[in-house]
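Practice problem: predict the structure.
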Amino acid sequence: MKIYKKSLSELKNIVQTKTRQLNDPQISKSVSEIIENVIENGDQAVKEYEKKFDNVDIENFKLPQSVIDEAYDNLAGDVKDALLLAKKNITSFHEKEKETGFIDAEQPGVLRGQKLLPLQKVGLYVPGGTAAYPSTILMSALPAKIAGVEQVVIVTPPQKDGINPAVLAAAKIAGVDSIYQVGGAQAIAALAFGTESIPRVDKIVGPGNIFVATAKKQVFGQVAIDMVAGPSEIGIIADDSADPKQLAADLLSQAEHDKLARPILVTDSEKLAQAVSENVDVQLKTLPREEIATESVNNKGFIAVVEKIDDMFDLMNTVAPEHLEIQVENPTQYLNQIRNAGSVFLGKYASEPLGDYVAGPNHILPTGGTARFSSPLGVYDFVKRTSFIQYTKPALEKEAKAITTLARVEGLEGHARAIESRFNKYY
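Answer:
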């Protein structure tokens, strides 16, 4: 694993170079064509794309409930127990995110307020392909259900041997209303615009490959999205009290996701940096997903050696990682130095996979440096806010002059007259 020992400014330039998000014009063009075809031809277009991209003939997109029930009933007991534990912890955490509206009646004759309403229909994209992600279903569906979403549907790529039973069981555990066997950009288009079989939704959430991410970006505005998720990332801040074997294992836990995943370690110890690099090389040799992880480590990963602990946090705030581990002595005392991170893991026993599965905080997180301005998925992503206003005539009369003055400053005479009409002027 590459080790850099440079000035802080040089290291920040390396970070920005490795995190720069570039659009692929050819992918954007292909996705645009897929979306237009789905808009025009609905189910037929989706079926053709599933045959082309997933090599699966699909007659009925919607999976029968009996298939879902059977998967749940036959699921191995230890897997079911793990999913139920995850549900318990995810639910207990996200229940605390629920918000309420408010009413303000402090001014005489004035009633103001805000009410919160859950979205009606939400579509969850669950990746298929190289791995199954039942945990992603729990992380996306449970906050939606807690928020009160009426209809939660899943789209996930069809598999020749059927969708992974753990995925189906997780959907049942999370209270998902229906599952549709469709993936890729065509799935995003179907959710955004609706087809004969697949319902149009209000919001699409969940991670996916570059085609899914590009499609979400292109349909935004027609439908809401959670974020444009990129490859997985882990940043680790560690001092010489950390265990290099554990650090290497944690870095590889994200490198195995994707060839474009970013594993980054920042430390003030050259000795630790060298030991971690050596352990990464050793552990890679026995990792089942060695090829994927090796490319991630070689092309996107690095270890940065800085002079002092404040520099470690300064550099990592520039990285703004999806996952951030703080493996130093007394890690909680440094929590306030973190400004940019999707989720923070404190201490040697808070290894990143803890957050992926059972801790409770959401694992659908901002990537690609977007933790500078984005948040983890939560209950708040599945509600909308509506404000309301009521004035009595005396209350309006008191503020009418200010309203009409501002309206005329903006050249909007009609606005001013709408107010004055309440007091027998103009109309």
